[in-house]
Specification:
By secondary structure, the protein is α+β, with helices and mostly antiparallel strands. It has three helices and 13 strands, in the order H-E-H-E-E-E-E-H-E-E-E-E-E-E-E-E. About 35% of the residues are buried. The structure holds N-oxalylglycine (OGA) and manganese (II) ion (MN).
């Protein structure tokens, strides 16, 4: 999806810093990436969509391979579309557009668009270990996740578990899905999973892609 840059942008050095981290380690983590009011707005819109039944079961695979499978992932999602996005979603999409340009300047990946969805994990839901690239394709190059959960504690579960070395299952890094936390990584380099959430867990998850 193509999005116009917002009038009120984000400090360029923040975005450049993320691009640099991606170059150096393939992973960037930033807390308080957006003001808490924006996060709260995105979260309350997400909860409203869940409560009115407007989210659908997320699937795995694409095209004819698509299937919903709650033994692999149990979140409910709504794809973001600029045409129907709320003002808060537009604001975030605008910042992602600036981030896309910053990453292109730093990594020469030729990222050309963002696709993403709001995701709600009801209590008990998880997403088994996976890579964000569909088999045989490398269209998704950079994963970017923004968490929307205030006061999330370790015992609430729902950790993002990253495996920095795909050949070593024993090594992992766990991250709480804290409101305002942005996690960005090279999609092909980091297998990851979402451990079972014990509370409703909201995020906006997406990918910068290159052309098919
Ligand atoms: C995904 C995913 C991680 C998270 O949607 O592909 O891995 O922490 N999400 O929500
Ligand atoms: Mn993923």
């Amino acid at each position: 999806m193509m999005v116009d840059a917002p009038a009120a942008g984000m400090a360029e050095d923040v975005l450049t810093g993320i691009a640099l981290d991606l170059v150096e380690t393939g992973l960037a983590i930033r807390d308080d990436f957006l003001p808490q009011e924006r996060i709260a707005q995105l979260a309350s819109e997400g909860r409203a969509l869940l409560n009115t039944g407007e989210l659908h079961a997320a699937g795995i695979g694409r095209g004819r391979q698509f299937q919903a499978n709650s033994a692999i992932r149990g979140d409910r999602i709504q794809w973001l579309e600029p045409a129907t996005a709320t003002p808060a979603q537009r604001y975030y999409l605008g910042i992602l557009e600036e981030l896309r340009l910053a990453i292109n300047r730093g990594l020469y990946l030729g990222l050309f668009e963002f696709e993403g969805h709001l995701a709600v994990y009801p209590p008990g839901a998880f997403y088994r270990k996976h890579l964000d690239q569909f088999q045989g394709t490398q269209q998704r190059l950079v994963t970017v996740i923004l968490y929307l959960n205030p006061d999330w504690r370790e015992e609430d579960g729902g950790l993002l578990r990253l495996y920095p070395d795909p050949t070593d299952d024993g090594r992992h890094q766990d991250l709480l899905p804290l409101a305002g936390r942005l996690v960005c990584f090279l999609s092909g380099d980091y297998p990851h999973e979402v451990l079972p959430a014990r509370r409703e867990r909201l995020s906006i998850t997406g990918w910068f892609r290159k052309r098919d």
